[in-house]
Amino acid sequence: MIKILQTLFFILFAQIAQGQTPKAELIIGVVPNLSARIINVNYQPFADYFEKNLGRDVRITTGTSFPNFYQRALANEFQMMVTAPNLARVSQLDGNWEPVAVLEPGIPGLLVGLNSRENNLELLRGKKLAIANPQSLVALAGLDWLDKQGLKAGRDYEIIRIANDDSLGTTLKTGEAAFAIMSQGEFNAKSPELKKILTPVNTFVRLPGFFIMVNKSLTPTEMKKIRGLIQDFPKSTQGTAFFSLSGFTGLSAPTANQIGLLDAFEPATRQGLLSNK
Predict the structure, then answer these.
(1) How many Cβ atoms from other residues are within 10 Å of residue 109's Cβ?
(2) Are the C-beta atoms of residues 213 and 81 closer than 8 Å to each other?
(3) Which of 40, 59, 207, 231 sits between 20 and 30 A of 47, alpha carbons compared?
(4) 81, 76, 136, 151: which is closest to 276 by C-alpha?
(5) CA 228 – CA 242 distance, rounded (Å)
(6) Residue 126: burial class (beta carbons within 10 Å; 0-12, 13-18, 19+)
């Protein structure tokens, strides 16, 4: 028995000396545009892919709000993250993050109402507009578009914040709000029952998709490995499952035009993050 224990000890010691200790958990942050339950379901294939190819445990996490998620990103609580494009840009400017890929297609921003409503923005006047995340790029672009249509928040209509995008459709159904702003992906995630009574009144913008970011605290070897895995992800079986669940269709490289568009929304993004802590 003593010899067996000695043998096991020497094997373990040799593994430690050769750097074969269990690898630390890889944490992937996903922006909380949907409920934690849906995020975990949709991104499980994403986690499975990196767990398989990196040989280490992978965990998906999110935040309690956009500002909370942004602060977690700045604190380097994730090694990778999938985040809204405007949050990606301020995280790149303020933190330790590098954009690697953009999920396609881009994000259509929708003004959504009940099927029974006419396509008439005047129905918003004197009523309420439901928004889950006022600091999201879709919300910022939507409010800017409404302002250009002659409808100003606080003067012509009231903004009400909803806990998450899962509840936006219910707010319209109950009549609490006249319209809601959401992305196409968030509209697609609604239950079949809700989608029967909701309709996109206007597609007011098409924005870059969510950014996949890598934390620069990773070693150069880890960075190179993960960048390559991200590029190959669409060709994997896990990639097929992820795109089927999430509604995304592929990946592309970030462009200078996209970064320029995001820079235009930087001040409004920062104001939203500060006012919604």
Answers:
(1) 25
(2) yes
(3) 207
(4) 136
(5) 18
(6) exposed
